[in-house]
Write a structure and sequence with these properties.
Elements lengths: L5 H9 L17 E7 L3 H13 L5 E4 L15 E2 L6 H15 L1 H5 L10 E5 L2 H16 L5 E3 L1 H7 L13 E5 L3 E2 L2 H14 L3 E3 L4 E7 L2 E7 L2 E10 L5 H7 L7 E10 L9 E4 L4 E5 L5 E11 L7 H14 L8 E11 L6 E4 L5 E5 L9 H14 L13 H4 L5 H5 L4
Helix pairs in contact: 2-7, 2-10, 3-10
The structure holds flavin-adenine dinucleotide.
Length: 414
Amino acid sequence: MRAYSGFSLLRGALAGHRYWPRAWRNAEPQQHYDVVIIGAGGHGLATAYYLAKYHGVKRVAVLEKGHLGSGNSGRNTQVCRSNYFYPESGAFYEHSLQLYENLASEININVMFSQRGILVLCNSPHEMDLCRRWANAIDMNGIDSEMLTREDIRKYLPHINLDCRFPIHGGFIQKRAGISRHDAVVWGYARAASAAGVDIVQQCAVTGINTSDSRVTSLETTRGRISAGCIALCVAGHSGHLAAMAGLRLPITSVALQAMVTEPVKPMLDVGLMSAHIHVYVSQSDRGELVIGGGADLYNSYAQRGGLPVQQESMQALLELLPILSRLRMMRQWAGICDMAPDVSPIVGKTSIENLYVSTGWGTGGYKAIPAGGDTLAHTMVHDEPHPLLRPFQLERFSTGRLIDEGAASGVAH
Ligand SMILES: Cc1cc2nc3c(=O)[nH]c(=O)nc-3n(C[C@H](O)[C@H](O)[C@H](O)COP(=O)(O)OP(=O)(O)OC[C@H]3O[C@@H](n4cnc5c(N)ncnc54)[C@H](O)[C@@H]3O)c2cc1C
């Protein structure tokens, strides 16, 4: 792999950008692999990268039914933060945030990680109390968080309407949180995994999982049968469907989560802004577009479009907070299919099928988890033991009852 650098950029520019090598090999599928990962989203690709690069696993393939990044990893709103409520989540997501801080040099691509801060608004006195509890818990997890007054918020957001329908009482911020470029994260892991010897096979849908004696023996795909020593399902909203092929039932439902972008404008918003109460969040991309998201659609779906009522609600909420945006035109809207666990926390690790692992339940918040998800799942597969950070996130918590209810605790899961 030829390294990207300032010098290679200059050389590429002077040569009219005609001689850039392909970023990754588009491999032909082999009949057998030591490890097959289903799904070339961020989690599948990162897991393959850490397996090949750090654990020396030789024959690894990532099978993708479409093109890589066509799932949620290329559709999200790019928020990276570690301000979760429970210590288990805090430790996991903080590991991920730290990996993001060094990701550009780790995988040699500019992931445009911008630690501009994520600011959470409180729209009622009751929410202020909850946020104090939340910020205090984050602090006790050893992660930065700071309560803000109305005046502090005005300094961050000069255009905000503090006296909107649900007046803003204050908020809190994680200054080390921010956004990064999701395509670069996906392409970077794909490129680095391919350079470490991983076969990335696109246009290869898994259509069946053959098992015998509680082991997966082979996979049926649209490009032939492939056998594997061990398999990981990293298919987000398709997890329930794929697990059922192996006779496994997962506590996962699939819902559409939407995002939208406006036409680009001059820099006007230099933090990520979230309100769980009126349910909208927004940040400004490097191209100047405002990237907007809100709540998930209320019904289960596999359609990557989403319904109009949620778009309207998100727009109403945004204009309550930032009326200055009312004349902006919306450029694009889309949705991704999120894999929601009942406690809104991930499920990563072994299953009752001996050589089948899952990485699911990332729901509306798994982009920020890609580096740590890949790192810890690779460790788990190699040692056949959960990585210490993953122990609380095993499937068995739904039979023991040790749930990690971030949905109720943090109020917002993006
Ligand atoms: C609109 C939106 C906004 C979001 N915003 C944020 C955010 O701001 N911050 C955050 O942290 N998270 C966010 N998320 C969540 C985040 O994007 C996901 O949790 C994360 O990308 C999941 O990554 P993944 O690799 O598990 O899945 P995906 O990226 O969805 O990859 C799964 C892949 O599996 C493939 N696949 C499915 N079935 C098969 C099959 N049968 N055979 C082969 N391949 C198959 C799919 O084509 C897909 O490419 C958001 C999600 C959405 C939809």
